[in-house]
Amino acid sequence: MNPDDPLLRILACPLDKGPLHLVLPDGPAAPDEALYNPRLRRRYPIVDGIPQLLPSSGEQVSDDEHEDLLKRMARTEGTTGTTGTTGTTGTTGTVS
């Protein structure tokens, strides 16, 4: 999966329905691509380019792995310019 894939904007965690972050492999010893929910500390694998988003497919990560995944997320998001999250756009008005 590519960091700029439009699918990333609509994928959500099956448990809390919040946004997921793409985590790319960080060398040969690192796990494969995954989607990560830092709020619940759950990682969902991507197998043959297909995100596995069943609640039972996600795995809880340790504190050390959570910190590593946050660093990898920052590198991935820093290179693409996207955050992998969805937000709302508000309007601003003027007060007379």
Structural summary, described in words:
Helices cover 19% and strands 18% of the residues. The protein contains one helix and five strands. The longest helix has 18 residues, at 63-80. The protein is globular. The termini are far apart. The relative contact order is 0.21. Residues 81-96 have low confidence and may be disordered.
The stretches of 5 or more residues where confidence is low (pLDDT under 50) are 81-96
The beta-strand count equals 5
Order of helices and strands: EEEEEH
Characterize the main sheet: 5 strands, antiparallel
Oligomeric grouping of the chains: single chain
The rough form would be described as: globular
Arithmetic mean of pLDDT: 81
| Percent of residues in β-strands | 15-25%
Task: Describe the structure in brief.
This protein is of the alpha+beta class and 96 residues long. It contains 1 helix and 5 strands, in the order βββββα.
